[in-house]
Amino acid sequence: MEMSRRWLGTSGIEITTVGFGSWAVGGDWAFGWGDQDDGDSARAIVRAVEAGVNWIDTAAVYGLGHSEEVVGRVLSQLPAGDRPLVFTKCGLVWDAADRHANTHRSAAPESIRRECEISLKRLRVDHIDLYQIHWPDDDGVPPEESWGEMSRLQDAGKVRAIGVSNYDIALLERCESVRHVDSLQPPLSMVNRGSAAAEIPWCAAHGTGVIVYSPMASGLLTDSFSPARVAAMAQSDWRRREAAYREPALSANIALRDALRPVAARHATTVSAVAVAWTLAWPGVTGAIVGARRPEQVDAWLPAGRLTLNATDLAEIETAIQKTGAGSGPAVPTAPTP
Fold first, then answer.
1. What integer is the mean pLDDT of 307-327?
2. pTM of the full predicted structure?
């Protein structure tokens, strides 16, 4: 059975409901997941593409350019007809002399234009299918100016569609006043549900596609996650600094993960797939970005691309969220208010 597909807003781009996320592919940097083997990364990407996943999401900042380079090498080795769509992001600049220094949020037009040209070279492509501003600017650049440059890149054929990531409604509306926002990339998982209350309904009402990130809560909602896994994380793994991986939140999150096992069993699938499918049940969500560091991790979430949770499943998950107290935000997918 082929993977489900949805249209990315009004962009004219049709994507599978799950896409390969290459954050961890970047390896070690300020917000990395520890050392990563490039061979494992390449095999994971190929596994996803061969299974029918038709898009890869990356970013210039992942591994300070390294993730894009790995993705570019894999793309160059695939037959032209088998190559997936490529989505990447700009707007975070770094100090090349210090891999672990904090990045800086800059959405100045000249920075966006320069980053786009460099990303095209790393990815070995002549255009980017979806180009996104990673985070709102910290330098006082009006979003209208940033979005104007994104629009010019689109008009020039450098990028096919333009989007933003981690923007709130106020920023989305300012961008929309300049040119249509093709897509938004917000976080969404059973643990991080805030975007389901505001930004996702806005997108549904405005014809803006939504590709959510971290649907498995960066590993928390996977079949084998445990406190021992946290203890074994590389010292440079960004998750060590996050409250979700420390008590008391850790126990609540793992209890929620355990509550998903009966749902997974009914569908003869994995907890990982259920976690991803839950995000896809929200009206307005087009697809979910799902990461992997090895091919077997891809196998764990691939079924989400064909899985539809029913009303009983969603009600059971809502009860589990409320009982465990994990995360915050709306607990059950509902249609947006007119």
1. 96
2. 0.96
